[in-house]
Design a protein that fits this description.
Helix content is 63%, strand content 9%. The protein has seven helices and two strands; from the N terminus they run αααββαααα. The protein is elongated. The termini are far apart. It comes from Kitasatospora indigofera.
């Protein structure tokens, strides 16, 4: 996937300025596709030049005008073509898993603090996902197709974080057992 595809999806969900897109990447999209603010702005300029997106100047009181981007017909066509391309299963690079295996050749308890740090990070992310789910997808609410697809992606993130936390708990138990 290219950053262009992630930007097109975001703009189809809701038009926005470069700053607003960067914030969306920081808040949600960034968990499965990361990009710096500079990368987003650079790609926006290229996509506008290629006609994939359109920009509208919006006046702001006391601040410089901003460009609000939206997906244009050529961008929608690119996205439609991309949706039909096969996607290969992703390979995972997991440095912590390699460190856990390496602990067999040193003191396993030396990794406890690092695994706990990862666990805290994943627990905080799960809490954020669950809070967002309660806010954006209340139980029993009628959801349109876009909302249903956003929700199924969020549920995947929730389940991934739950699985990761269970695994990290298992790792911690193993490290503690081996450290004694």
């Amino acid at each position: 996937m290219a950053l262009e595809h992630a930007i097109l999806v975001s703009l189809l969900e809701q038009p926005g300025s470069g700053y607003e897109l960067a914030r969306r990447f920081d808040r949600s999209i960034g968990r499965f596709w990361t990009a710096t603010h500079q990368q987003i702005y650079r790609v926006l300029r290229r996509m506008e030049a290629d006609g994939w997106i359109a920009a509208e100047e919006v006046a702001q009181d006391g601040r410089p005008d901003k460009k609000v981007y939206s997906a244009a017909a050529p961008g929608r066509a690119v996205l439609a073509g991309w949706l039909r391309e096969p996607v290969e299963p992703e390979t995972v690079r997991h440095e912590l898993a390699v460190k856990i295996r390496a602990a067999a050749f040193d003191d396993p308890s030396a990794l406890v603090a690092e695994v706990e740090r990862h666990r805290e990070s994943h627990a905080a992310l799960l809490a954020r996902y669950l809070s967002g789910e309660r806010r954006d997808f209340p139980a029993g609410a009628a959801l349109d197709a876009q909302q249903q697809l956003q929700h199924v992606v969020l549920r995947g993130g929730i389940e991934y974080e739950r699985m990761t936390l269970a695994w990290l708990d298992d790792v911690l138990a193993t490290l503690h057992r081996l450290g004694n």
